[in-house]
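Friendly challenge for the regulars: who can give me the C-alpha cells for this chain first? No prize, just bragging rights.
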Amino acid sequence: MRQIEWFGNYSFAFIIVITALVLFLIAYCILRFRASVNPTPSRTSHNTLIEVIWTVGPVVILLCLAIPSFQLLTAQYTPPEEAKLTVKATGNQWNWDYEYQVDNTLSFNSAILQDADRAAAGKEDRAAYPRLLAVDNEMVVPVSTMTRVLVTATDVIHAFAMPSFGIKTDAVPGRINEVWFKADKEGLYYGQCSELCGKDHAFMPIAIRVVSDAQYKTWLAAAKTDLPGANKALMAEVDGTNKVAAAGN
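First reply, four minutes later:
Bragging rights claimed.
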C-alpha cells in the first residue's frame, strides 16, 4: 500500500508541473499574440526545435511514469514473503463466503447488516458500523501477517476490493484470482464489491477486522464451534479501542 501511495504522490508531481506549463503557455499566447500588439499574425509553418521538444518531452515523461508503474504492477503480483494465512473469498449475489484454509476448515457467510439486526448483533454504533458497510460476520485476520486471498464467484462477475489495503481483483465464476495484503494497523476496514453484479450490487460490502495475533488465535479456535459467540467476544474486547478505516469503491 505504501508503494501505491508513493506512486500516487509521484504521479501528482508530474500532473502539477504539466498543468502549470500548459496554463503558462495559454496565458503567454493570449497576451503575446493578441491583436492589439500583434496586428500582423505570424506565418511560421514549422519550427524544428519546438517540434523536437514536444516530441521528446512527452516520451521522457511517459518513461518516468511507466518504469515505476511496471515495477508497482510486478510488486502487486509478487508477495515479498510466503503467506501465513490463506482465505478463499467467494462472491455471491449479493454476499461473500469466506473459507479459512486452516486445520478443521472454517467457513461462513458475510452479508450486509440489516437495521433490524443491529441490536442483536451488538452493532448499534453507526460510527463503527456504518450503514451499507457493516456486515454480520467480518473476515478476521491477524495484524502484520502476510494474508493471501483467493477470489472467485458462484454466479456472475463480482470484484473483491479493499481500498485501505490497495487490493482489487475480479471474482469470476470458474476461475480463482489471487491478491495479498499485510495490514500493519489493527482496526475494522471496509470495502465493497466493485463490479456491477445486479440489482443489489450497492449492498454487497466487505469488512475485514484486523486484530492482534493472540486475539486472532482465540477467535479462530472459538469460531470453529460458535461463530456468533466468537464474534461477540472479539467485539467486546476490541470495540472502542481500534480505529475504523471506512472506504468504498
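The mean pLDDT is 91. The first helix runs from residue 2 to 32. Your move, everyone else.
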